[in-house]
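Cross-posted from the bioinformatics board.
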Amino acid sequence: MSQALPKLIFYSSIPLAERARRVFNFQRSSNSVYSKFAEVLGINGDLSVDFPIHKMPLIPIRVFKEAEIKSFKGTADMLFKSSGTGNMTQSRHFVKEGSLYVEAIENEFYRHFPKESTSILCYTPGYADNPHSSLIWMLNHLVNEDPSGLSRFIPLQEPLKKVSLQPFIENSRNIVLFGAAFGLLDLLENGSDPLPASAQIVETGGMKTHRREISKSKLRNVLSEGFQIPQQQIHSEYGMCELLSQSYAIRSEWFTPPEWVYMTVRDSANPERICEPHEPGKLGVIDLANLYSCSFIITDDKAIMDENGRFKIMGRWKKAEMRGCNFLIDRE
Amino acid sequence: MYSDTQKNIKAISKAVDAWLQPDNLSLKNAIDQTVKENLFGLEDIKYQIRHLKRSLKEENLLKWGNMSNLNVSQLKDKNVICLHAGNLPLVGLQDLLSTALAGANYWGKLSRKDPYLLPTLIEKLDDQNIIGERQYSTDLSYFSNREADAVLFAGSEDSANSVISSLKDLNIADFDTPRLMRTAHFSIAFISDHEKETMEDLTEAVFRYGGTGCRSVAIVVAPFKLDSQKCHFTDYIEAFWLKNPQHKKPDQSLFYRYATNKALEINQAWLNDFLIEERISKPTDKFVLQWIQGDKHTLSKIIEEFKEGLQTVYTTSETQANDIQEQFKIETDLLTKAQTPDIWWKPDGVDTVSWLQKELC
């Protein structure tokens, strides 16, 4: 493999399609699973320079559950696993070089929340309890990178009190409170104090659990009122174990992918077709930071995209027409 | 001296007989129209009608009534709205007969995919003045502002809220109205040999109606691997398709599934319009059969994992069917009856007539 690739993927001066093409050619020759997939779909050799990025085949995300998706030989720096309960099979992401993950994390997070002025409070389980969570690894890294040393994981089940925020104010640090949607609601319900006026919130994860469901707009309302900060200071993060890059929805529900990520919404019935703006489909991702696994993925997340390439997540994709007698009245 | 219930059953039987007469022009026209509009294939409709001719006998209706402790006078003036799915021809017939047997009023929201066939039976039931009134439409709003006492429909837990909300918006029913929602969407075949009869029955159980319908087999548990019988099984499938061309075709996503399996080196058989794979996952997709090598223990694990959504486990012997029913408390049947069930078969394990009587009396 060209030694330049790990650096090249973040070079924005090279067109994204060209970087994607080089990553495709690398993974086609080094990742047997993806290579066979591409072959069945009719691609047997390297892509030519004019090959359109939207025609690069996207492999269903389930492969991360059913095989070791590697574009390298030897041992991995890290192994991330998706959260899974009961009989659920977990996805596994073998990360050859942690430095690539670090670069993806820092490039995007610090673009929105400058390192020199930001400290984060993570209302999530700690790293020691979740060594295989890519999200917790990311947060742990951001905590450790804070030059002020004030960033930390905060204890679960305990309210966030004003007094504990005083050191941030005294050190002129902008607080980013990072947590899962329902975790942040719990934090409020536990009797937390309002946040300082300049604080920001980043919520992540699904909007539905086995016991409750909330819309994104309601969540933003509740968090804004509860923590007494404007909704413009509430953001969302989209990431998963299978992707080393994260997207952020700043001040709204619309996510913008990082510069090295190409997002499309695909017709679930025909993944080769890109949906029209605002037409729901499955989110397709080309994440160049997945250099040593597989960069070309179709997820099971339901999404829409606007005319400007921003995307919105609408939950998990559910089949409108399952086998059997199931049906929806309005689709009949 | 006949009871009112017996008289009602006799009258229904007479209506059904009249409906199934070869000279019934309205049924013939309905079949022609259905085929003309490409809603179902002619072979599938003929298969269904042939089966109904064999099963809808007076003695079977009486048997069903006895098993359900039927008393026709109990549900007089009760209104039952039935929301019919249209994935196979006449799929709503059992609900129509259930309400007629129970003596309730039938409001049928017909599927736009199957709007012609059922009304021809309703016409014959009306000719015989069967107890209860019957009204039908493909448009749910036709029933606006009429209060239903019960709702019968097929759906999923996720779709239930939207269905009931639609009914509530039209003042037909609300979240307190008794509802019988069928969520089952697949069945399992547990086979022990690959004899001609078994393979023919399996082919019918999997591929009839393009594999749709909760009684269709989505998972096979067999003591041998797919590879060992792939060619053998494919011969039966080809023979079946020659006589019964598959009406609906899969979309491009099935080929993606094939490509993904190939990449993962999963054993499979690509049949262009169907995929057989040696892999287990929640059986939600159409045109996919999952083949698992295993024994009763394997079956037990699959039942445990996918019980929600499972309609019936088929076997090739009655003794085995009884054993499995006893052990796992699920519906079982003979493989040969997968697509030709008794008229009293229980969707989701619930007898509709009993349910109506229990909920509405």
